[in-house]
Fold each of these.
Amino acid sequence: MRIQRLQLTNLRSLSSLALDASPEINLVHGANGSGKTSVLEAIHLLSLGRSFRTHQARHVITEGCTEATSFAQLCDEQGASAGNLGVSRSNQGELRARFQGQDIDTAGLAALMPVQVIDSDAFNLLDGSPSIRRQFIDWGGFHHSSRFISTWRGFQRALKQRNSLLKYGRIDRSVLDVWNREFLSYSEELTKLRQAYVEAFIPQFRSILTALVGDSAGGSAGEPVGELDIELRYSRGWDRERSLEELLNEGFERDQRQGFTGYGPQRADLRFRVGGRSAAEHLSRGQKKLTVSALKLAQGQVYSETTGRRCIYLIDDLPAELDARHLGKFCTYLKASGSQCFITCVDPELILELWGVSEQGRLFKLENGKLTASEPFGDSE
Ligand SMILES: Nc1ncnc2c1ncn2[C@@H]1O[C@H](COP(=O)(O)OP(=O)(O)O)[C@@H](O)[C@H]1O
Ligand SMILES: [Mg+2]
């Protein structure tokens, strides 16, 4: 799905703004504080019903206003009209989302208009807590298999039940056995779905990382990726040599003391290593940016291969941390992907030059809450 026209009201410093989007690159530039990231937040609101910068709706709503809204005319990959989507958040936290005149829930939104965000928080994929990496895998799993969402929900329910029993103190073993069985069966299913996703994901990640770092050597599974050789491994949340059932039985008393379940898919993680060392400790900022970008782009690529559709890329301050050579590779990759991109930056000159000729690319200047559009990509030779 693509955005043809975007309209937003009362979102941070932007009171009202409309944008006729290109199906290819939409480059939004302006001074610091002009509202560039807010435009990306408006698109994210359409995709997940919330901002990527905050979980609290009131921060996104213009001060003194009661709700922020984002509205889009959507089209399919061929440009045929695909209906109108409107999402609003009130300062009470209420979410209203309508697609083609019907209410739509957040799972519906996520399936309708998937986006991938690359911003300064994306570094958390390497440096942040495992829960961020689990969310990342689960986004992929959700789009990879139609069984994922019900399995994920079933697992969360079983985990919650087991944990509340553990906290309760006097435990009826027969009740615990019922929830253990439920927990084990969902754990097995969820782990299979996540593993299937990660298996599809890793080769894409490696080949995109190769494209971004620009060494033609390597790139296929198991080979070094040019100047950045990152080993990515999925860790399922319990010992590789043991069964989860065994560990649950063995760890029962500890689980009871702690009041939560110590092993299982709730502890799953992705591990990144470079030459045997932790990537988070070893890589430079620029290398981390390339790595997390490759992760996000690979997720978009697997989504495309699974569904035959493309996701939208929201890239905040694309040039940050990148030298001209890597920025050029990044632009080349995005252009070839055929995905709709919304990219922000302070100074657009270098990106315009590196992107090269594009019939449809659009440049937007944001100043004093107003947007001016031009189509400069076609002019460059
Ligand atoms: N809830 C809000 N109401 C009004 N203005 C806000 C709100 N939140 C942030 N702002 C203002 O919006 C601007 C931030 O916009 P942002 O999209 O981050 O700019 P940019 O990405 O161009 O640097 C800042 O000037 C900030 O003061
Ligand atoms: Mg910004």
Note: Residues 36-37, 316 surround magnesium ion (ligand 2) (CB under 6 Å).
Amino acid sequence: MSRPPRPSAAVVLTRNRLANRQVFWVRRSSRVAFMPGHYSFPGGGVEPADHEAARYFHGPEELRPSLAAAVRETFEETGVLLGAARLDDLPATRKALLAKEIPFIEALERHQAQPAGVVFHEAARWVTPPFSPMRFSARFFVADCPEDQHPEVWEGELAMGEWIAPAAAVDLWRRGLALVPPPALHILRSLEREWDHAIELLRNPGFLNADSIPTKMEVTPGIHVVPLRTPTLPPATHTNLYIAGHGELVLIEPASGEAAELAVLDTCLDTLRREGKGPIREILITHHHGDHVGGLEAMRQKYGVPVRGHALNRDKLGAGALDGFIASGELIVIPGDPPLRLRALHTPGHAQGHLIFWEEDARAIIAGDMMAGVGTILIDPPEGHMGTYLQSLELMLDLHPHVILPAHGPAIGDARDAIRFYIQHRLKREEKIFSAVAAGAGTVEEIVPIAYDDTPPAAWPLAERSTLAHLEHLAGLGRVVENQGRYLTADRVR
Ligand SMILES: [Zn+2]
């Protein structure tokens, strides 16, 4: 079971000028473990020092350490020290605090800060759902940024920060240009409203359960993600089921039929139903692997709807597993206001009958196992084929996508860069394998320790499968030949 969520806190800095409200949002670095590349607000975990500093804050006793953490994190991440009276040398104090040379209390005292005088509007507490390996119990406070202070992000855990109108931020999310986790998205949508209404919505989002866990997670407009626990390839532990539609709904990846996982799905469906969405029209699969279809039969029975996928899955799933087939290029229109359109595209390589689903409005690809937000994609011959996998990645690149919605792990932003990285990473590995062959390694067992010297030996059994896929690809290109069970570079064979 996952560990209890860690208390954390964040500040939504606002600027309300001439009826033109702005918020300061930050983008997390693409290298951090939690929500890489996602937009949110300055914040972080509550630390012992925050309990010490709590006496500088007003409000209910149990809230004060969170307020202290929110103010400290905002100072560390943006340089804005809420309540500060003396502003000279703030950057020096920020640097010293970041280097842990001074405690937070000293930072407050140096600048004669009286955070008790700052007005904080308390928003709801949000708890990360149990699927996540890192979980937070996060408090958000909305506070006006002092006119004489200007937030500035120093690159590190955060890649950037900027002032933006809430409506403009939501619009970037709508177009797939910004990944925004559920709490931040709700806060931005609330702050689009007139002030009293906004404050009410911030306090009562309306879709948090009794444990403050969101019961729906909209990743791009009209597409909700429900991670279901599956026996998948570590380090992944879950497969993402996606619910698509603004009205009627389509389920993609019926990954688990376990009662506990079906209950997680039902909680989300109930929330969507209360918003007037439904019924479920059909279930789609990306491909036949067990961690993607484990709940196919259970969900077909439960919801009484047909299941469709590419015809090449027919033999692997057995007769009758699919009620209909999807051809590459088929446009699936899901009725609603507005209708949601998914274009199915055949992308073999990881699996012969693999489909992706392309949603053009947010330029989002529901990518199945073509790419992963956690772990790597296995190309395992003879089902897996490196040459066609690389071609399928090129096909995805040509769509000019903004967002990848993978079957495992969080959404991936800057999609074209991510796809290019995947292709380059494979080709780089292939060159290492070619070099190993050129140096005399002739079997998969001899090649792997050389070509995967940057990978722990525990991963080598899987690396052997990928190596075989690369060797097949190199053979197809005429660069290596197989001769009596050994691989040679082509120029060595005459
Ligand atoms: Zn798979």
Note: The pocket of zinc ion is lined by residues 287, 289, 350-351, 369 (CB under 6 Å).
